[in-house]
Amino acid sequence: MFTDDEHFDCAALAILARSFVEMNALPQVPNMSKLLTEAFLPKWRGAGGQQPAMYKAITAVCLVRQIVGAVFAAVLMLGGHAKAGEPLRVGKAVPEAFSFVPLDIGIEEGIFTKNALDVRPTAFAGDAKLQQAMAADGIDVALGSGPGMAFIVKGSPVKAIAAMAGPPLLLAIVVRPDGPKTVDDLKGRRVSVSTAGSLTAWLVGQTARRQGWGPRGIEIEPMGAMPGQIAALKRGDIDGAIMDIGNAFDLEKKGEGRILVRFTDIKDFIIHVIYATNKAIANRPADLRNFVKGWFETIAFMRSHKDETVKIAAPVMGKDAGITGRTYDELMPMFSDNGKFSQAALDVLAKSWVELGTLPAEPDLKTLYTEQFLPR
Fold first, then answer.
1. How is the beta sheet containing 219-222 ordered, strand by strand?
2. pTM (predicted TM-score)
């Protein structure tokens, strides 16, 4: 595949030039002669030190060779500005939770496409990893937790743009069949969460605090992705794991786990929000508005199309239709239809960050979110 003369192949470069336009990397084929130079390549000299006429002809015909490196550089330099058709990179805090299935439904049903978006999904192993990806400009939009808004206070270059779900109906603390019998038995026990500072860590800390043990009355074990947590639970490495209700139902069905704690009594809450990076807010406001619009159109579709939703969600969640259908029935009520931030729910979050030691003081909540992208 290596060249012996370092010269650009004009036919190959012509194909590349067309592809940049077809993929919306550039609005039109550039003036290629201005982009590259072969001035530094070894000179081909014939007898008497003169360039053969054939070489001069090839050089003239293949001026097109001077495209690739500079075009790629131009594309990279344009990276800070949204271009027509530019993909919107959307991250999910975890891959299998039903909370984030609307992203898959919207893509599969063409709802985001109808809103002029090319959505590219990526899944992570918890809120902390998701926030790191946003900070590194790896994604533009993130589907994460309400408690994760504390990362903004700590310097994460993002803002919450929609409150997508309220009460924490999604999650449950699961133990082995022979494990703790009541919530009182969790004192001093080890319960796994996805990452430190995540929604799951928040709920375990809240469980301990509500029992009067303080936020560290239950030993929190950040363990990343759910398959590893379930394996640790089965081995007895931990005493419990907080997980999405779909996984909890599945373990109960198999006789491998038992739901010990649900959080259905927590009403004023924001379990999940949609985040956007500050860069996307500055450079791609129309795309963000279209994404939020497509999201809530997807929620409306899901409410009226259970069978279609279950069919798409089941392989995403890795569960059978029965478990997925049961999860649908349990969790659809938690989704917001408008994305507005409840002041009472925000106040609960702000107070909890101090109580759990996440932040030293309650922040100015108005700096953490915006409603400018919500449907009017």
1. 219-222, 190-193, 240-244, 171-175, 258-262
2. 0.71
